[in-house]
Amino acid sequence: DDESIRHFINCKESETFKNGIAVGKMLGNYNFLTSAYTKYIVLFSEKGYHKCGSRFYNEKLKINMLDGDLRRRANLYLGMGYNSIISEQHTKANEYFSNAIDILIKNRNAEGIAEALYNMAINCICVQDFISACNYFDTRLKPYRYVMRLSYMVCRHFLTIWLVMNIVHINVLAIWRLE
User: Fold this and answer.
1) What's the rounded Cα separation, in Å, for the pair 5 and 9?
2) Per residue in 40-66, pLDDT tens?
3) What is the pTM of this model?
4) Cα-Cα-Cα-Cα dihedral sign, residues 111, 95, 30, 11
């Protein structure tokens, strides 16, 4: 709403939002609270206020710690990692992705692991660490490919990024040799 947009500059919630959160907490309605924070994260992110979004992600994480839904927590960490990449907090992004991977391994969620590894590689590309990006695909994927089957789409994403990283890696090595 317009009131929410006016508060963007100060990274503050509208009074309507605050009142809704208070009611949700009073009722212990975790789904309502999660949904409310998700909408605010999207609203702030759409407008380019990703650092403000981080605050709402942290609030959403506190709620998730109470409800204990590990599937949601893994997805939350993936979102927090992605938001951290956009906010140029690359070390923090990898921490979030690693947290997600820990949960996803326990739940044997191969596609979620693949998404986290993909995002970690993208994070490395953002800081121009192409060798580490390749290593995420070469070293981190090996244990999983024998334990779990990845869907065709996930395998295709891995193959594409792995090929791109290896081409970049080969080109970087060629440039170094020419110098």
Assistant:
1) 8
2) 888 888 878 787 788 889 999 999 998
3) 0.73
4) negative
The number of C-alpha atoms within 13 Å of 176 and in the hemisphere containing its C-beta is 6
Place of tokens 């949960």: 103
41 Cβ partners below 8 Å, 6+ apart? 53, 56, 57, 60, 79, 83
The span from the CA of 89 to the CA of 111, in Å, is: 24
Give per-residue pLDDT as tens, 86-132.
999 999 999 999 999 999 999 988 778 878 888 898 898 888 887 78
* Cβ(166)–Cβ(151) below 8 Å: no
* 132 three-state secondary structure: helix
| Interior angle at CA 9, CA 33 and CA 20, nearest 5 | 20
**Cα–Cα distance for residue pair 179/175, rounded to 1 Å:** 6
CB atoms within 10 A of CB 2: 7
The count of other CB atoms within 10 Å of the CB of residue 76 is 25
Asked whether 149 and 155 are in contact (CB, 8 A), the reply is no
